[in-house]
What we know:
The structure holds two protein chains of two kinds.
Chain A: E1 3-6, H1 17-28, E2 32-38, H2 42-49, E3 54-61, H3 70-80, E4 86-90, H4 93-105, E5 110-114, E6 116-119, E7 122-127, E8 132-138, E9 143-147, E10 163-166, E11 176-183, E12 196-200, H5 211-220, E13 223-226, H6 228-232, E14 253-257, H7 263-266, E15 274-279, E16 292-295, H8 298-313
Parallel strand pairs in A: 1-2, 1-4, 2-3, 3-10, 4-9, 5-9, 12-13, 12-14, 14-15, 15-16
Antiparallel strand pairs in A: 6-7, 7-8
Chain B: E1 2-6, E2 9-11, E3 33-35, H1 37-51, E4 57-64, H2 68-78, E5 82-87, H3 94-108, E6 112-116, H4 127-135, E7 138-149, E8 152-159, E9 162-168, E10 172-176, H5 188-194, E11 199-202, H6 204-207, E12 215-221, E13 230-231, H7 235-245
Parallel strand pairs in B: 1-4, 1-6, 4-5, 5-11, 6-10, 7-10
Antiparallel strand pairs in B: 2-3, 7-8, 8-9
Helix pairs in contact in B: 2-5, 3-4
Amino acid sequence: MSALVLVEHDNAALVAATLNAVTAAKQMDSDVHLLVAGSGCDAVAKAAAAVAGVSKVLVADAPAYGNALAEPLAALMAKVGRGYSHIVAAATKQGKNVLPRVAALLDVSAVTDIIAVESADTFVRPIYAGNAIATVQSGDAIKVVSVRSTAFEAAADSGGGASVEPAEAVADPGLSEFLGQDLTKSERPELTSARVVVSGGRGMGSGENFKLLEGIADRLNAAIGASRAAVDAGFVPNDYQVGQTGKVVAPDLYIAVGISGAIQHLAGMKESKVIVAINKDEEAPIFQVADYGLVADLFKAVPELEAELNKALG
Amino acid sequence: MKVLVAVKRVIDYNVKVRVKADGTGVETANVKMSMNPFDEIAVEEAIRLKEAGVASEIVVVSMGVQQCQETIRTALAMGADRGILVQTDQVLEPLAIAKMLKVIVEREQPGLVILGKQAIDGDHSQTGQMLAALLGWAQGTFAYKLEPKDGGLEVTREIDGGLETVRLRTPAVITTDLRLNEPRFASLPNIMKAKKKPLDVVGPDDLGVDIAARVKVLKVVEPPKRQGGVKVADVAALVEKLKNEAKVI
Ligand SMILES: Cc1cc2nc3c(=O)[nH]c(=O)nc-3n(C[C@H](O)[C@H](O)[C@H](O)COP(=O)(O)OP(=O)(O)OC[C@H]3O[C@@H](n4cnc5c(N)ncnc54)[C@H](O)[C@@H]3O)c2cc1C
Ligand SMILES: Nc1ncnc2c1ncn2[C@@H]1O[C@H](COP(=O)(O)O)[C@@H](O)[C@H]1O
C-alpha cells in the first residue's frame, strides 16, 4: 500500500512543513503519494512532483479547493484516501483543521501531532503540554496522522520524479464560503522554520516596544515570536504565539525576552538547540531551561545586545 | 436557537503534571481538576449569544466520570441552562466523544454546537472537526470572532499566517481559540442557583454508541529533562558564549 500526504500551499508554492510530513510518511510506508488540491495550482503540482522520494502526485484543481476550506477538502481526501495505508498532513493549523474531519468521514481515529514513528501503526506524541510523552498504536485500517514538523527533517524539494495524475472528482458539500484573509506581513523567515527566533512576552510592555527586538532579529535573520500574554495584550498578532496552543518551534537559537516561562510556553520552544533568556526576575522559571540566562532589565539589555551583535558580527 | 456546548473536565492548567511510575499514564489522584480552559471560552460565547438574543437555551454536555457533574455545574453557574452528563469510567477517544455528541445533537436539535479547539490533557484538537464531519455540518475551527449574519454564521479563524474569515451554513460546529472572549467568573448567587438547574445523567449505552478504544496507549513516559545552563554576567559575556561556545551566531 501507500501513504498519502496532503500538500499545503497557497496555489503558488508549497508550505515547508509539507516536506517534514513527507519524511514522516516515508517512515510509515515506503511508497508515498502527494495530494495537491487547489485552484490554478499547476506550479504546486510541479513542485510536488520534484520532492524526493515521492512516486505519484494526485492533483485536484477546482475553485472549491482554492482556499483549503475544510469541508470540500476533507470530502476529497476521504474519497481519494480510501485505498491508502496512511493519510498524513503537517500539524499546521490547516492540517489540524482538516485531518480529524477526514478521519471521522472514514470512521477511523486520528493521531495528531506526532513526534516520532515507531512502526507503521505506532507513533509517539506529546500530551499535557509536553509534560508526558505517549506511545500509541492505532488499530484502524487507515491511519490518519498529523506530523509536528520540528521533529522530522525536511525531505529534499528536488531530485524527485513523480508522475502527476488528476485525482478523482468529488462533489463540494457547499457548506462554507471563503470571505477573506488578514495575513501578517513580514519579510522575516517563517516562525516554525527559522534558524533563530526572538520572542517577547508581557515584559515588553507594549507593541511599540517590540521594535526593540527587530534590531536583533535583523542582525540574526530571525523570526519574531511571542508569548500568549503578549498576543492577548495586543502587542503582536495571534500568529506570533509560541506554545502548547500556538506554534511549536525548535530553532538553533531561541531568545526569550520578558517571558516568565510558563509550562504552556515551554511546550512550544523547549526543543530549541540553544535557549537564551533575558528576564529581570532571577527566579523566573524560564531560567530552568535556558542555556544562557541574563538577569537584567530588557530595556537596557536588548539595545546592548544589538550593539554587541553588531560588534561581534562586524 | 438552542446552543449546545461540550465541556471537558481536565487537570487544572496550573498543575505540574506527573507521569505515573508504571508508565500507564499521568497521576490524577488528589490533583486539582477544572473545566478545560477552551471550554470556558465556549460557554462564555454561548452566554453572550443568549444575552444578544440569538440563543434561546444553552445545553452543556460533558462525558466521563461522575465528577464531571462539577464541570457541568460550573458552566451552569456561568449562565448555561441545563446539563447532560454521559457517565462512564472508560477512557474516551475523540472519535467516540464525537459519535456520542452526534446522537445528543440529533436529539436536542441545536442550531450551533460550540467546543474548545483543544483539550489541554490529550492535546488532540480533533473532537469538533470529527463531530462536524459526522453531522455533515460546516465547521469553524479556532474561532477568533463569531457573528451570526443573514441566517448563517461569519467566523474569523486564527490560522498560521494571521486571520481568515469564512461564512458557514447553519447549523454548524464551532471550536474556540484563546482570543474569542474572556470567560466570566460565576458569582456566588449564581453558583447557588446552578445547583437547582436540571442535569440529566445518561450512559453510553443509552446513546447506542460503540466507544471501544481504537488507539492503544502502549506507554507514557516523562520527556527528556532539559539541563538548565549558566547565568551570564552581562550582554558582552552572552554574545561571547553564543559565538565561541554554542557557535550559534
Ligand atoms: C489554555 C491555555 C493555553 C495557553 N497557551 C499558551 C501558549 O501557547 N503560549 C504561551 O506563551 N502561553 C500560553 N498560555 C499562557 C501561559 O500560561 C502564561 O500565562 C503566559 O505564557 C505568560 O506570558 P509571559 O511570560 O509573557 O507573561 P508573564 O508570566 O507575566 O511574564 C512576564 C515576565 O517578564 C519579566 N519582565 C517584566 N518586565 C521586564 C523587564 N523590564 N525586563 C526584563 N524582564 C521583565 C517578568 O519578570 C516576567 O517573568 C496558555 C494558558 C492557557 C490557560
Ligand atoms: N470528555 C469530553 N466531554 C465533553 N466534551 C469533550 C470531551 N472531550 C473533548 N470534548 C470537547 O472537545 C474539545 C476538543 O477536545 P480534543 O479533541 O480532545 O482536543 C474540547 O475542548 C471539548 O469541548
